[in-house]
Amino acid sequence: MRVPKKERQRLLQETIEHNPFIKDEELSKQFSVSIQTIRLDRMELKIPEVRERIKHVASEHLDEVKSLSMSEVIGDMIDLKLDDSAISVLDIEKEHVFSRNEIARGHVLFAQANSLAVALINDELALTTKADIRFSRQVHLGERVVAKARVMKLRGDGRTDVTVESYVGEECVFDGDFTIYRRGEEEQA
Amino acid sequence: MRVPKKERQRLLQETIEHNPFIKDEELSKQFSVSIQTIRLDRMELKIPEVRERIKHVASEHLDEVKSLSMSEVIGDMIDLKLDDSAISVLDIEKEHVFSRNEIARGHVLFAQANSLAVALINDELALTTKADIRFSRQVHLGERVVAKARVMKLRGDGRTDVTVESYVGEECVFDGDFTIYRRGEEEQA
DNA sequence: AAAGAACTTAATACCTGGTACTAATAGCAG
DNA sequence: CTGCTATTAGTACCAGGTATTAAGTTCTTT
């Protein structure tokens, strides 16, 4: 039943992660050590007491409502030549990924690319009307995505074709062809 | 400062509902009564102590995470038949629109549709690999968007084609064809 | 085998945010 | 004034800890 300290602490961490509601007493039974040992372990691993853990879970729940405000999922613009080309950078953080596997959600990459394409247009009103997009590689928590947009064709009728390619390092992770409508008040973005 | 009992209890209930983390002590200050009075009030109203309230909020949260992260869908899922069809509703609010003209940003509609398409897939891992989308009408602040997703083709190779159409009332405002990858750990969403 | 270090357990005082219960007081109506 | 409700006070007790000091118990290393 009894496992060495290192192993016990690894298991402890896992156990608590998967059930934050468990008390020291239960843990001590589960690992067949004294309560004090569990507490030392928690200290070393910097795991807070059960009430704090519960509070943490609960408070995450509360912000969930406002979490996906989406308003600024767009990254930082680092270069912009209107009606020509633009570059933005987005660091993938916790709120951008599926909690289960830490892979960035599709609409995050889309949002970065779309926002960039729209920003590129030198006009008061610019709205996306159409987009063909491909996700070519997963993007993980902590990675930095650089999106590069270029105007391909400025049509006379108010439509502009913009291509966006997003990279993590050398690798292309996303690309899309956007048609942006400018000026008029029809169409959609 | 001091309000009659009935009124105080009504406010107490509201206060706690909107902030379940509040302690008796704070409440007693807020209502300028003693802690004991607050406790009598809670008794009468059958409101549990703060730790229980927090635990309750937290456990709701856990359920959600386990129940295949409905929370990760944007908008409210109102119907879901796995691997068949799904419907979600999203009310367009301030954070979804361009402040200049109160038109919903493209990636908001995309996010609703994309999330719905991904949620539809009856698998642990589901990631968008490709999407062709069209925005056919502007969506304005305050409008309610209903997205309807339907699985079109379940290919053998792990790819599934999903079509999503989003409506405001009778009008189609967005539609898209998504290719979702399931299972494996390649590709991207 | 003895010494030391690392690990484990024990014991005790104290903390927060309560419950449960008893009793005293305040404020007002009849 | 009596009676009633509402409020406040006080005490004992609880869970689930923290923090600290001290005492074993192993394991290793010389």
Short recap of the structure:
The structure is a homodimer of 189-residue chains. With 189 residues, chain A is of the alpha+beta class.
Detailed description of the structure:
The structure is a homodimer of 189-residue chains. With 189 residues, the first copy, chain A, is α+β, with helices and mostly antiparallel strands. The first copy, chain A, is 34% helix and 30% strand. In chain A, strands 1-2-4-5-6-3 form a six-stranded antiparallel β-sheet, covered by helices on one side. The model of chain A is unreliable at 63-73 and 184-189 (pLDDT under 50). At the A-B interface, helix 4, helix 5 and strand 3 of A face helix 4, helix 5 and strand 3 of B. Strand 3 (126-135) of chain A pairs antiparallel with strand 3 (126-135) of chain B. The first copy, chain A, binds a DNA duplex (30 and 30 nucleotides) through helix 3.
Biggest β-sheet of chain A, characterized? Answer: 6 strands, antiparallel
| Counted beta strands of chain A | 6
What is the helical fraction of chain A, as a range of percent?
25-40%
Please tell me the CATH architecture of the largest domain in chain A by its name: Roll
Oligomerization? homodimer
CATH superfamily annotation of the largest domain in chain A: Hotdog Thioesterase
What is the H-and-E element order of chain A? HHHHEEHEEEE
Give the CA-based shape of chain A.
elongated
